[in-house]
Amino acid sequence: MSFTRRDLFKMAAVGAAASVGGNLQASDDAYPIDCSQTYGVLVDTVVCIGCRKCEWACNNEHKLSTTDLKTFEDKSVFQQHRRPVDNAYTVVNEFKNPETAKPYTIKVQCMHCNQPACASACIVGALKKNRLGSVDYDAWKCIGCRYCMVACPFQVPAYEYNEALKPRVMKCTFCLDRLEEGRKPACVGICPNEALTFGTREQLIDLAKERIKAKPELYFNHVYGEKEVGGTSWMYLASTDFINTELPKLTNDPIPHTTETIQHGIFKSFVPPLALYGLLGLIMHSLRENKEDKESDDERS
Ligand code: SF4
Ligand code: SF4
Ligand code: SF4
Asked: Average pLDDT of the chain?
């Protein structure tokens, strides 16, 4: 692995931040008291038609890569599994329901977790959960350590590696500017089939349960994101068990407790930043594996 001068400067800055105290992280004031009233979006994959208009609207709103609508009419992209990247905050993927063999499409982006692991891993408070529900990123505070990318259980944050001077962490903003003006996110506004519904988490959980109750033959009886990792602002309905979707199987425990414990322990011992980066990655990796092991044990028992 090689480092640019900028990387080295930022690593030094991390070290300086760590050496002046172990409390330079966002978690203390990062979480609203009552997430039932923060905003969220219900993604109903049963009614999503895979039109990719949400992708276009997001790119258009945030001036990311191409904004040519025709590009987004191309369905051949479904032949590959795509992930959100620095120039596409959201992507739509196609999968087959293994029970019915019918294809379904699913939009993915930052989940705007109630207790975001990315925010608790960030030692300079560049990521914060705000009272509207968005997990907001402050590029000015960011030192480019990319701990958030390691910590996110949904593997969402991307990095602008091609920006030499001012690279940023890139992810869905929940269209915070629009929320502050009382408008819906751009992707929600354009969805032609009500596959995306905007509201408070409380309203959306009620709506999701009503849809499941009204058409149990169409919906798997689970609202993904209601409880996973302590709850998320973006939640999902599907026609199949979520283990058949690209959303990871996670426990209901919020992840920040782990990242905070790791960081507080390490800062007290003045572990150098490079070692911290590696150690955080290793521990988060083993945490995911342990969770998978535990879940497969649970399933076996
Ligand atoms: S705009 Fe709506 S229906 Fe179209 S792909 Fe996106 S979520 Fe699905
Ligand atoms: S999905 Fe990942 S990036 Fe988004 S708020 Fe949750 S932890 Fe942070
Ligand atoms: S909420 Fe805004 S930033 Fe997030 S996927 Fe939708 S349009 Fe993009």
From this structure: 82
Tokens at 92, concatenated: 């739509």
Q: pLDDT digit string (tens) for 44-82?
A: 999 999 999 999 999 999 999 877 888 999 999 999 999
Q: What is the rounded CA–CA span in Å between residue 202 and residue 206?
A: 6
Strand-pair category, 127-129 with 135-137 = antiparallel
In angstroms, the CA 119 to CA 126 distance is: 7
- Gap between the Cα atoms of 143 and 11, Å rounded: 8
Atom number of ligand 3 nearest to Cα 61: 7
Distance 46 CA to ligand 3 centre (A): 20
At 298, the pLDDT band (50, 70, 90 cuts) reads very low
Three-state SS annotation for 206-246: HHHHHHHHHCCCCCCCCCECCCHHHCECEEEECCCCHHHCC
Provide the whole-model pTM.
0.80
* φ, ψ for residue 126, nearest 5 deg: -80, -15
For the segment 148-180, what is each residue's pLDDT rounded down to a tens digit? 999 999 999 999 887 777 789 999 999 999 999
* Pairwise pLDDT comparison (271 vs 124), residue with the higher score: 124
DSSP string, 129-156: E-TTS-EEE-TTT--S--HHHHH-TT--
Q: Whose Cα sits closest to atom 2 in ligand 3? A: 175
Give me the helices (H) in the chain, please.
5-19, 53-62, 117-121, 147-151, 176-180, 186-190, 201-214, 256-268, 273-300
- Cα first-last separation, the chain: 43
Nearest ligand, CA of residue 196? 1
Atom of ligand 2 nearest to the CA of 171: 3
